[in-house]
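sry for the spam today, last one i promise. struct tokens for design, 260 residues
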């Protein structure tokens, strides 16, 4: 167990999107910090493998975050089994590609259903339980795509801007109950999502070096992020070290947005 994140040990938390990528990194980091975790994902097999690797002391649930009844049942079951949920890391997100002139209605709807409605349903189910207890910390993953436009990612960029603003409003509404709500906006992070993005690119050097033809920014640190580097920031924001931080969108992008 690591004790680097003040106040996390022994508290109950939920991680959504935990089977792979950034969510898996967050689950591993919070588990190492001594939290009691419930992990959710549509990928039930991935969750089982992670739970076994963590030693089996986590609750896992196959869950589609677009299903409000299922989200409510998952959070209720988590509280029944583990106790009051004081921390939420909502990581789930999907990405589909297509210029605005071409993107299919189905792909646009899917991104808004999973990324925006999913965040709304999960934060609502957890947040309303935190209110009477007057404590809690919530982190959702937005993206640098919420602020930096990217060709072929109009639906994704718009959905992530919606997530960031939804969390900002939730933060304002929940602040009177001492519940903090923040976003983390990763830049390019080495996960399956980015491998699928790179598969659409003729030359993947543009990810770190930038590309004038597509107005794509590079990464001053010269490399993509590792999931654990995003997870550490999520854990910090959930911890008591961040007790005066709320309604923020913390950009973790190796400098890609040039600090703007
Ligand atoms: N990888 C990046 O470069 C990057 C950059 C910025 C933001 N993000 C965001 O970080 C988050 C994690 O991305 P990642 O790169 O780890 O992606 P990923 O595809 O590796 O993992 C996403 C996880 O979410 C799960 N999931 C998808 N739809 C779901 C649903 N409806 N219900 C429950 N679970 C569902 C998947 O099964 C998967 O385990 C996403 O919100 C993504 O938009 C990623």
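last one done:
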């Amino acid at each position: 167990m690591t004790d680097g994140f003040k106040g996390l040990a022994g508290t109950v938390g939920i991680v959504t999107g935990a089977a792979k990528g950034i969510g898996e990194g967050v689950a591993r980091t919070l588990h190492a910090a001594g939290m009691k975790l419930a992990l959710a994902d549509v990928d039930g097999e991935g969750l089982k493998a992670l739970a076994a690797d963590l030693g089996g002391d986590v609750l896992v649930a196959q869950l589609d975050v677009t299903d409000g009844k299922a989200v409510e049942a998952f959070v209720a079951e988590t509280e029944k089994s583990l106790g009051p949920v004081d921390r939420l890391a909502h990581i789930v997100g999907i990405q589909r590609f297509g210029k605005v002139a071409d993107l299919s209605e189905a792909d646009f709807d899917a991104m808004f259903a999973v990324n925006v409605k999913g965040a709304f349903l999960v934060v609502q189910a957890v947040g309303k339980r935190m209110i009477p207890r007057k404590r809690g910390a919530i982190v959702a993953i937005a993206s640098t795509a919420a602020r930096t436009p990217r060709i072929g990612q109009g639906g994704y960029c718009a959905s992530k801007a919606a997530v960031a603003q939804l969390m900002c409003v939730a933060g304002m509404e929940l602040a009177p109950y001492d519940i903090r709500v923040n976003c983390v906006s990763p830049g390019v992070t080495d996960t399956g999502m980015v491998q699928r993005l790179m598969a659409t690119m003729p030359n993947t050097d543009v990810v770190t070096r930038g590309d004038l033809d597509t107005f794509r920014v590079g990464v001053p640190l010269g490399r993509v992020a590792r999931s654990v580097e995003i997870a550490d920031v999520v854990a910090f924001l959930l911890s008591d070290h961040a007790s005066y931080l709320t309604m923020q969108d913390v950009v973790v992008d190796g400098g890609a947005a040039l600090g703007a």
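The pocket of nicotinamide-adenine-dinucleotide is lined by residues 17, 19-23, 41-43, 46, 63-66, 91-95, 114, 118, 141, 143, 186, 188-189, 191-194 (CB under 6 Å). ok im logging off now
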